[in-house]
Specification:
Length: about 350
């Protein structure tokens, strides 16, 4: 059989994926009969014979893989750099895979990392929830950053508190007098986008501001490249200018905030007098705009440290000593672009 996954082994054996994992790793509870049955199925299907031939992952490769959707992104690149440095300092090599937000490219990279028998994985962000058993990597310790897994076995999920970030930013805009704030984001399918959308809408609701997905949300496609944009996105310009009532913007990254600032300036709008703006990530861009851009700051160092410590625990012990989900607090950095009432 080709492309056999651990799910297939479980189905053919009549047991759960977790039981197959225990048999392959030779730990946990399972009967001798079950163990023999699963091993026979593995042998007959040729499931990952390269891994089994190498003592079922008892040999360490002193390497980890990092899968990132966009290495040019300020937050992603900084997290990757800190994780890579930490593991290099303790003798690990790191394979960094940039997927360009392409699911097929991501799957190809993951299969490559699995075949290289990396000791652990860091999966950063992504559009859909991650399903490790789909490609047969459920035995590898995984740390997820900003991407919730469907299967939390042998893994930990670490994320900034995106709900609180959006709620805090939106509440600040409302306190500054905004009656019709809007949210700029990318594909809504990612877990971080879902949380930010919820925080944004809850802040509006608590302040008795009517909202609709059409009037209060503008979604850019994940492939949108405003850095190399030849001309303005007409639909976005229309969104900002067709309704004179838009008076506040929360953008899911600073570049979107800077882009909005530029479009508004060309349309004769003044920031913050007419429209107030808050970005996300607190990048250097935020300090060099006119006016300076308010922004949500993520604790990159804490996220990277948590990721490194958690992955080492998983690789050494196959379990995590802390809870399987960690939310890291964020901070609103208030600058000129969002503040008229001091």
């Amino acid at each position: 059989m080709e492309n056999v996954s651990i799910k297939d082994i479980a189905k053919l054996s009549g047991v759960s994926v977790a039981t197959v994992s225990r048999v392959i790793n030779n730990n946990g509870r399972f009967s001798e009969e079950t163990g023999k049955k699963v091993r026979d199925i593995i042998e007959s299907t040729g499931y990952r014979t390269n891994r089994i031939a190498k003592s079922l992952r008892t040999q360490k490769t002193q390497s980890i893989g990092i899968v990132v959707p966009d290495i040019t992104n300020f937050f992603f690149s900084n997290v990757v750099q800190k994780i890579e440095k930490h593991f290099f300092d303790i003798g690990y090599s790191t394979i960094i895979c940039n997927t360009d937000r392409d699911p097929k490219k991501e799957k190809t990279y993951l299969k490559m990392l699995e075949s290289k028998m990396v000791d652990g994985l860091v999966i950063i962000s992504g559009v859909k929830k991650f399903e490790p058993t789909d490609i047969g990597i459920s035995l590898i310790p995984i740390v997820y950053i900003d991407r919730e897994p469907n299967d939390s076995v042998n893994s930990i999920f670490i994320s900034s508190d995106h709900y609180q970030a959006a709620y805090t930013a939106t509440s600040h805009l409302i306190r500054q007098g905004c009656k019709h704030p809007v949210l700029l984001l990318y594909d809504r399918a990612s877990s971080s986008s879902e949380k930010r959308l919820s925080g944004f809408l809850d802040a509006l609701k608590e302040n008795h501001i009517f909202s609709s997905l059409e009037e209060n949300i503008f979604t850019f496609p994940s492939s949108f490249d405003f850095v190399n944009l030849d001309k303005e996105d007409e639909s976005f310009r229309n969104f900002l200018t067709k309704e004179q009532k838009i008076d506040g913007i929360f953008a899911v990254n600073d570049l979107l905030g800077v882009y909005a600032l530029d479009v508004l300036r060309k349309e004769g709008k003044k920031v913050p007098a007419d429209v107030k703006i808050i970005g996300f990530d607190n990048t250097p861009y935020s300090r060099f705009t006119t006016p300076k851009l308010s922004s949500i700051e993520q604790n990159i160092q804490e996220i990277a440290t948590l990721a490194c410590d958690s992955l080492k625990q998983l690789m050494e012990n196959n379990y995590i000593k802390t809870e399987a989900k960690r939310l890291v607090p964020v901070k609103l950095i208030i600058r000129e672009s969002s503040q008229t009432n001091k």
